[in-house]
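Below is just one:
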Amino acid sequence: MPEIRRACKVCTPRRGRPTVPPAPHPERPARRPHSVSATAQADLPTYTHIVVGAGTAGCLLANRLSAHPDFRVLLIEAGGHDDYHWIHIPVGYLHCIGNPRTDWLYQTDADPGLNGRRLRYPRGRVLGGCSSINGMIYMRGQSRDYDQWAQHCGDANWRWEHCLPFFKAHEDHWRGGDALHAAPGFDPSGQRAGGEWRVERQRLSWEILDAFAAAAQEAGIPATEDFNRGSNEGVGYFEVNQRRGVRWNASKAFLRPVVGRPNLQVWTGAKVQRLLMTRGADGGLRATGVEILPEQGGAPVRARATAEVVMAAGAVGTPAILQRSGLGPGGLLQGLGLPVLLDQPAIGGNLQDHLQIRAVFKVQGVRTLNTRAAHWWGKAAIGLEYLFRRSGPMSMAPSQLGAFTRSSPEHAWPNVQYHVQPLSLDAFGEPLHPFNAFTASVCNLNPSSRGRIHLTGPSVDDAPSILANYLSTEADRRVAADSLRLTRRIAAQPALARYRPEEVKPGVQWQRDEDLARLAGDIGTTIFHPVGTCAMGRDDDPAAVVDSRLRVRGVAGLRVADASVMPTITSGNTNAPTLMIAERAAAWIRQAADVQA
């Protein structure tokens, strides 16, 4: 029988280290499989629900579904365990992105909107998924985002007021409970009492960021202490998913506390080649399980789901797996030699992302990370501060200060977001500049450009083609030019004057709209928020892959519960909305099972 290596290892809640469970007791079932049979259909390990992808959504789904006494749940992750120390140190994202241990190492296609450039496109390949390598920013978006979803889907359940309880269902907020936030999830003794998803204030401040915030207020952007109350307009420090200066990922929050449940199994190092399908007498398709390729090679392994397969592999992984399974654009699949079980061109389409335009300003009379970390003694001081206080630059999220505002007066709501950092560099992963500087990255929250995800080959090891089509519409190019002008207006305010900001990138010599839009293509980069590639919508909408309850149209027993179902991108960072989507999906799955019972 083929063995899935590390399939029976899980991160324990006490130390966070993977362990191999002991041999099964003869009078009780084993908690984790050591091997599974792929020799005959009757030998397939059988579960009620299989969750594909142990990332942000998958970890929550595994927690909620395995809480149902009648469910037997399998959670499948292609990557490994989140026991790499750089996952948990906040600044460690620098060591996780671009690392095959934790990242799929995707790249985009050459993008015309970026003047032919290709971008690194990080996606988490580890327990916790992108929550193990992302910027840790807690951001729900704007209430209007969800009201638009409800209108688009014809389902009032997606309105803001109906989504809010599902944000609060897992929230553990430092402020305490009120109408918009859940109370802290730990009682005075340190025991968990409420939600699992910890939200804290950052454990640092920077003089240059405080000055930028003051300048933004002088430019007409109000101060705010909470971006998550339905309208995120304002400027302030981001709240982050950390606990006492340590990253709080979905694996810690949702998976570790429940790994002892006898009805939950977690397989790692297990790449899903395709979904198993049957076609009924009426011609209808049904998802019945998955075919898995073990990380260490060997024969494919299959597992069966009697109720549902739930896709939670993300906006890149989910459409790729569906396409490999024969669900997607018929011409594309035929060209790759794949059977076409459901010709659905929308699978992999509608890709949306936030493109950040990074403006760099050299400053004087103030220290930034550029010079603070320039020498060994500075690095040593930073390390000691984190070691003893869990604060300072090593506790930093990639961006610390945020602002939401309008790029120009004609917008009725905040349409751009700033991520402001007390540092500068030419590109991600390159050395810091040798002078003091800050970076003001600004992104269009509601881009009209649309891209797509397509397979390039039939194997799970064939990286997909990712074309975001950034800046492909006149509206997006206009917002890009206006955003750079707005950044310049903030930098020219009196609050920053004492630091004599000097624009290094893109450069004040560029003033015309067409020049600024072109330069946005030269310096813009993804902020890692891909969504929309299996969008939900009305049943009569040909662009809708799933219905408003996230069930795949045309395939029974198959649901999608990750960022790919967003019909339009949220106005901010996308991790918190993805958890809300998973929370809703789990409730609907449990509800459907209880009704059938």
